[in-house]
Amino acid sequence: MTANGGSPYLSSGDLESLIDAAGTPRMGASVLDIAARKAGIDEVFAYCGGATAHPMLLASSGTGGASSARALAYTNQFHSFDPVVKMVTAHADREGTLVRRVAASEIREADYRQQCFEKPLFSEKWSFARWRGDRFYVLSFYRRSDRGQADGEALATLADMALPVLRKHGELIAPEVEAPLLDRLLEGLKTHYPALTERERAVCARTLAGMTAEAIALDLGVKPSTVLTYRRRAYERFGISSANQLMARLIG
């Protein structure tokens, strides 16, 4: 402990910056700023979920770009392959903070390992999680392979400070989180795939959001076979065959 009773790693100014960022797009950058200074972290990602609920993205930020796309890929495609999720859901009745260090080599699902670890050169992540009621909150710190081992004590101190703030942040942004997901996907497709038609973008965005062909057909007012046709045309145009490959291209 320091002379003033505070953490040897974090200052009152660090806590103030987190609180000030709650409910704003600055949340991820605020956590990353502290984590980078204190433990050489390259990317942060926070979300909340439940035993059966789909994860809700709370914040993400990285020094190498594409952090938002990776966070989106995780929440929509890869979270079920994460050892951290298995740990958290297995301890729903536990008080306090759960901790899990995950090496890239532990990820058995090839697309998840490639897109969220190997491609950005992350060798490991440290994840801290807490249950509150029927939901859990997870904060993960990613570190590149050339950085050496992270300071676990510094990260634990930051997680203890940040997780309660992230919970409040989630409450503040919850009403606007779900709707913008599709908007962000559509905008990303429009930016990276300008040759797609409006209907092809609509189908591809909904596919990336996890909707089935039947659900997309109902949403767009077309037949499921029409959805498959639009999706096939879009995939063929870019020489891909799956939503994972499309997301990989968006991640860049």
Folded structure, characterized:
The protein has 252 residues and is of the alpha+beta class. It contains ten helices and five strands. α1 (12-21) runs parallel beside α6 (152-192) and α3 runs antiparallel to α5. The model is unreliable at 1-7 (pLDDT under 50).
Total helices: the number is 10
Strand order of the largest sheet: 2-1-5-4-3
The radius of gyration is 19 Å
Low-confidence stretches: 1-7
> How many β-strand runs?
5
Share of residues in helices:
40-55%
* SSE-based structural type: alpha+beta
Task: Using the alpha-carbon principal axes, give the shape.
Answer: globular
- SSE pattern: HHEEHHEHEEHHHHH
Beta-strand residue fraction: 15-25%
Biggest sheet overview = 5 strands, antiparallel
